[in-house]
Amino acid sequence: MRFLFVLFVILPIFEMWLLIEVGSQIGSLATIGAVLFTAVLGASLLKRQGLHTLTRAQQRLDSGQIPAKEILEGLMLAVSGALLLTPGFITDAIGFSLLVPGVRTLLTAQLLRQGVLRVQGAQFGQQGSHFSYQRYESRAQGDSESGEKVTIEGDFRRED
Predict the structure, then answer these.
(1) Global pTM?
(2) Does residue 87 contact residue 22 with C-beta atoms inside 8 Å?
(3) Strand pairing partners for 119?
């Protein structure tokens, strides 16, 4: 709850204050130009890195692996894009930090260690192989009060 309060109340107040301060120092047109420049630059970087992440995910799928890391990186890139398109310097700083591959790699590794996404026994390339996916529900969402794991199992075959 505190996170949402900070996100929707405190952060916009700081963003407005910082925009006013920067505008009083360099002028309103220069401030608007800087905000537009960061949005255009961010969109350009986001497109390039998004395509790179999509290509890596496709390569992992083609080799019979689950692209868990690439899925999480894609999610971080989407958040980064939303932050870069939001007017303000604080959101731009956070958005640009998510565009740094090293930062994304560290965050992805941390999320995978925390069990945000766990995949077991994925072998897509072989016919009749077995795939098991476990999803861990968050107690904060109230979906899994008993802490039970949801397991989906099945067999499949590839028809080319």
Answers:
(1) 0.67
(2) no
(3) 133
The answer to whether the Cα torsion of 47, 81, 45, 117 is positive or negative is negative
Q: Which amino acid is at 69?
A: K
The structure tokens 């995910």 sit at 57
Helix, strand, coil shares of the chain, percent, nearest 5, are 65, 10, 25
In whole angstroms, give the CA distance from residue 114 to residue 102: 18
Q: Residue 85: which residues within 8 A CB-CB, separation 6 or more?
A: 39, 42, 43
Q: What is the pLDDT of residues 38-79, one digit of tens each?
A: 999 999 999 999 999 999 999 999 998 888 889 889 999 999
Residue in the block written with tokens 């996404």: 117
Residue 29: is it exposed, middle or buried by C-beta count within 10 angstroms (0-12/13-18/19+)? exposed
- Residue 138, judged by CB atoms within 10 A of its CB (0-12, 13-18, 19+), counts as exposed
| Nearest alpha-carbon partner for 84 in 97, 100, 95 | 95
Query: CA 50, 32, 89 angle in degrees (round to 5)?
Result: 55
pLDDT in tens, 93-137: 999 999 998 999 898 888 888 776 655 544 444 444 344 444 444
